[in-house]
């Protein structure tokens, strides 16, 4: 693409959610306030640390699925990092149009963008990628936008071959007991799921919401519990790096790595 074509594309696809850089000093401007833009870099550092620790030198063999890929920020990062291929899926074609433009304009190959919903991910991919699971799946910034988190996590687990990196907002833990059939019989909470109304954002066409106005947000314990129920054998929380985005630093957003195989140690070697 020529500089003029890139410039025209940047203007035609505005507004942008992410800051992307192109040859010749061209760039997109993120619609987020400058202090919030740091979130993307922190998330990427945390994703990279989990991916490097697990796959190590196997990275060139890794097939990656980026679920809720938006404009492709993390799909591009994984392609650049040297994975074998990336499939980016998003519910919104308007986000995918931007993602395709950025990949073309930056000259990054090996990414396929497809429209699809996490709620029906396995069936959607069965048509285009029959019998395939993805060694690495990314589920970043999406879980807290969906109304049926357990259904979505089961779908994510079904298409994950080895490891999924999940990033989500979390609500504060609430410990307690529910009565379960009589005053004497109780069950401890295994975590909390908050119901969040995203109607204002949904009705005004904000491109980051889920596919319905109802969102849910788990507590850390609920997240861990749901991941196990969905079919992940092991879940590890990733420690935020020094200088992390304030929400990650305060534990209000978390990044975790969920593994299908309990016996896989770092770099994919079988645990001794
Ligand atoms: C907050 S953005 C996060 C984007 C990116 N993964 C990141 O971490 O920066 C949420 C993205 O998920 C997409 N999305 C929301 N609900 C979805 C669903 N049910 N299925 C697939 N994509 C969805 C939105 O269109 C949007 O692109």
Give the helices and strands, then pairings:
Elements: H1 3-13, H2 34-55, E1 63-67, H3 73-81, E2 85-90, H4 93-106, E3 111-115, H5 121-128, E4 134-140, H6 149-159, E5 160-169, E6 177-179, E7 186-188, E8 193-197, H7 199-203, E9 214-218, H8 220-230, E10 234-237, H9 246-249, E11 253-259
Parallel strand pairs: 1-2, 1-4, 2-3, 4-5
Antiparallel strand pairs: 5-11, 6-7, 8-9, 10-11
Helix pairs in contact: 6-8
Bound molecules: S-adenosylmethionine.
Short structural summary:
With 272 residues, the chain is an alpha/beta fold. It has helices at 3-13, 34-55, 73-81, 93-106, 121-128, 149-159, 199-203, 220-230, 246-249; strands at 63-67, 85-90, 111-115, 134-140, 160-169, 177-179, 186-188, 193-197, 214-218, 234-237, 253-259. The chain is 35% helix and 22% strand.
Give a verbal description of the structure.
The longest helix has 22 residues, at 34-55. The protein has nine helices and eleven strands. Mean pLDDT is 95; it is low at 268-272. The chain is globular, with a radius of gyration of 19 Å. Helix 6 packs across helix 8. It has one domain: 3-Layer(aba) Sandwich (Rossmann fold). The chain has 272 residues and is of the alpha/beta class. It has a seven-stranded mixed beta sheet with strand order 3-2-1-4-5-11-10, sandwiched between helices. A two-stranded antiparallel ribbon has the order 6-7. Helix content is 35%, strand content 22%. The chain binds S-adenosylmethionine. Residues 68-70, 73-74, 90-92, 95, 117-119, 140-142, 145-146, 207-208, 210-211 line the site of S-adenosylmethionine (SAM).
């Amino acid at each position: 693409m020529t500089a003029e074509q890139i410039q025209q594309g940047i203007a035609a696809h505005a507004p942008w959610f992410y800051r992307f850089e192109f040859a010749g000093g061209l760039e997109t401007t993120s619609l987020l306030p400058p202090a919030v833009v740091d979130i993307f870099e922190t998330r990427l550092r945390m994703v990279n640390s989990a991916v490097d620790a697990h796959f190590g030198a196997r990275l060139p063999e890794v097939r990656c699925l980026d679920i809720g890929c938006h404009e492709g920020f993390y799909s591009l990062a994984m392609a650049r990092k040297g994975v074998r291929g990336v499939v980016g899926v998003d519910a919104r074609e308007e986000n995918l149009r931007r993602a395709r433009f950025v990949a073309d304009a930056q000259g990054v190959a090996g990414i396929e963008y497809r429209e699809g919903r996490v709620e029906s991910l396995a069936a959607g991919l069965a048509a285009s990628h029959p019998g395939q699971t993805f060694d690495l799946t990314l589920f970043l910034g999406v879980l807290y936008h969906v109304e049926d988190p357990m259904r979505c996590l089961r779908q994510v687990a079904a298409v994950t071959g080895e490891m999924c990196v999940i990033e989500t907002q979390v609500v504060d833990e609430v410990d307690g007991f529910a009565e379960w059939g009589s005053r004497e019989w109780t069950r401890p909470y295994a975590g909390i799921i908050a119901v969040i109304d995203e109607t204002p954002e949904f009705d005004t066409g904000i491109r980051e919401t889920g596919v319905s106005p109802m969102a849910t947000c788990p507590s850390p314990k609920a997240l861990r519990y749901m991941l196990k129920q969905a079919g992940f054998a092991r879940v590890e929380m990733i420690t935020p790096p020094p200088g992390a985005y304030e929400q990650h630093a305060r534990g209000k957003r978390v990044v975790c790595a969920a593994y299908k195989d309990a016996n896989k140690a770092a770099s994919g070697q079988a645990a001794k």
